[in-house]
Amino acid sequence: xxxxxxxxxSIDQAMPDKRAAEDRRHDFDEIYARFSPExxxxxxxxxxxxxxxxxxxxxxxxxxxxDWLMLTAEGRLEEAxxxxxxxxxxPEICGRICPQDRLCEGNCVIxxxxxxxxxxxxxxxxxxxxxxxxxxxxxxxxxxxxxxxGIIGAGPGGLAAADMLRRKGFSVHVYDxxxxxxxxxVYGIPNFKLDKAIVGRRHDLLEAGGIKFHLNFEIGRDASLxxxxxxxxxxxxxxxxxxxxxxxxxxxTLGNIVQALDFLTASNxxxxxxxxxxxxxxxxxxxxxxxxxxxxxxxxxxxxxxxGAASVKCLYRRDRKxxxxxxxxxxxxxxxxxxxxxxxxxxxxxxxxxxxxxLAHRVHLGVADATGRQTPQMVEGSQFTLQxxxxxxxxxxxxENVPTLxxxxxxxxxxxxxxxxxxxxFMTSLDGVFAAGDIVRGASLVVWAIRDGRDAAESxxxxxxxxxxxxxxxx
Length: 475
Ligand code: FAD
Ligand code: SF4
Ligand code: SF4
Prior knowledge:
By secondary structure, this protein is of the alpha/beta class. It has three domains: about 5-130, Alpha-helical ferredoxin (Fumarate Reductase Iron-sulfur Protein, Chain B, domain 2); about 150-240 and about 400-470, 3-Layer(bba) Sandwich (FAD/NAD(P)-binding domain); about 245-395, FAD/NAD(P)-binding domain (3-Layer(bba) Sandwich). The chain contains 17 helices and 16 strands. The protein has a five-stranded parallel β-sheet, with helices on both faces. Strands 6-14-7-8-9 form a five-stranded parallel β-sheet. α8 (about 155-170) packs parallel to α17 (about 445-465) and α12 packs across α13. Bound molecules: flavin-adenine dinucleotide and iron/sulfur cluster (2 copies).
């Protein structure tokens, strides 16, 4: 029914209503409302149903975007949900937190001069509606296969694999050292981007489908990898990357210079009503400087605003167009009162036990490196000082030393510490042990962790079917 579509000429792009910056500065609620049914229909109808849909090509899950937009435009929401959930385990989560401006929407080829289709918001609308109407069901296997898979890590990679393996009939056990399910979706990403209830709702469904969660259970402390291999027929490692990068600079050991994830985890725990240690980092009343320019830095500055900081500055060594964070997030941060200090880097910290100021200098961008990004170089004589009584380091993450932690010296890792896998099978150097998500890719995105988790699950099913021919084709 193509006449329902191609409306990009007559209908302007419209995002769902965004709360006013002054309003959202004071709480951790999500900032976008949901589309009304009429708005979802009309926004979906802007799609021009491209012969080669670049939106789909650039979605890590290769979601069948044009078709579910068409079904939404035609009011056939249940079918839209079936189609969207066929390739994405958590569409309502991706619709909220994918950097769409770099992925699907950034590659929407609607005629030049018109803005892209609001793909993420429609995806979120479809699945939020599906949850409300009871269309989203727990994973339900047709038969039990009598084989079990142990998954280490309850982040998006581990959960996507758990969901697929359970649907195929495996008994699935997920181990996580945290006390809640969701990995960085729960303790990293703030509530104003992804409401924790959305993740909790998925946990409930997975549990209702028979997946067993073993929380507060750390591999390396409560069991070794070898012990887990004894318990299960295959293992998936999806433990993410948690070693926070540091800088060496005079004054770095002063008080109130903290790591981003410690700051964000404490904030997320307060949101849950957990008891948080009194000396946990808190920005209330403080002059805050966040160092870094990625999504984690954006989450820190926006969290600091909501905690009632006196001022919030983001110090980043490149310019706006060279920063790794999503432009949409930078815009939100600026609207909420964050000041960006571009092309600047810290050279030290001053204080009296606790930090009182950041000593910084200007940088200029030199020649491009192997990745095409220009390398920052210091501008002589450009030193300046920023008042700061809380400094948050958001410099990126590296993997922990997994072979040592897991007591598994034969587990081969790359020179960066990420786990080496065969890129077709996701199998590590250990037979029957697979790996997926950030621990393989390095710090990445939720949508890529979901993709890897799904692909690894398919591969685990093929591996077990080959080992136990009586299972027949389960992959
Ligand atoms: P994780 O989500 O890290 O989950 C790994 C799990 O393994 C954790 O629950 C951990 O407790 C558990 N674990 C680790 N070691 C052990 C062990 N020894 N024993 C038992 N359990 C263990 N991505 C986006 O797409 N959009 C965003 O807006 C976005 N914002 C982000 C903001 C922040 C602050 C951060 C830090 C990341 C953000 N990301 C974002 C990236 C995204 O969260 C990750 O790429 C994604 O969560 C990786 O999924 P994963 O399953 O590989 O690992
Ligand atoms: Fe876009 Fe992410 Fe949804 Fe893919 S999963 S369509 S990239 S929002
Ligand atoms: Fe529709 Fe844009 Fe995808 Fe083309 S690229 S199919 S217009 S959403």
